[in-house]
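Late entry, written up from scratch paper. The run itself happened at the end of the previous shift, but nothing got recorded in the book at the time, so transcribing now.
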Amino acid sequence: MVHFKVENLSISFGGIRAVDSATFEVGQNSIFSIIGPNGSGKTTIFNMISGIYKPDSGNVILSGESLTGLSPDRIARKGVSRTFQNIQLFANASVMDNIMLGRHIHMKTGVLSGAFMWGRGSRCAKEEVIHRERVEHIIDFLDLQSVRDQFVSNLPYGKRKLVELARALALEPKVLLLDEPSAGMNTEEKDDLRIWIKDIQDDYKVTILLIEHDMNMVMGISDRILAINQGIKIVEGTPQEVQKHPDVIAAYLGEEDA
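Output as recorded:
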């Protein structure tokens, strides 16, 4: 069942074609990875999907509805959330407050009154209970209990990446875009992340689009993979098909005898 679709998505910067006619379909609750060398256009595709960049042409479709041309906030409200290569968190706010900000699209009282000024009236208090329960579940799920009240600025990089993932989950997305989620993590953290991504797929029933340079992770958890180079599709297929493709080996994975 096709849940998410990108059709002929293209964009140029200064006359240079960054992404050329990107096209792929993602089944519901599946993990779809995009791989390619640095500068190949992977994050640019994410930026077009999430509304940061407006494509020159093409379409992004979620559950039959076009998202093309919508603002990032409206796209988030349609059910698309993401993490970033460069972590975008409030460093001088607690882990709890950062994750609570992910609930903003569900808050009737607004972000500030909902996340930072609880208790001002019964309506706000009722929302506090609902949203905090959702956030506490995510904190337990990602094993962030020990740092829930700490400022993000005091956390190691790997933990910050998890907080950003937690905030993205707090939006209750239909589609989750993960842009290099394991960057800066140690081996143990990467192993845990691999399990969590699979659990998100299974327990949260979320469709996941993944950009990741750790090929062991990509090949181990992806249902399908798209390989691109210089904004152009090389091949799309199962992990086994992509891993063996000679153009992928030459462009990204490296020669086997190198």
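The chain has ten helices and ten strands.
(Scratch paper discarded after transcription.)
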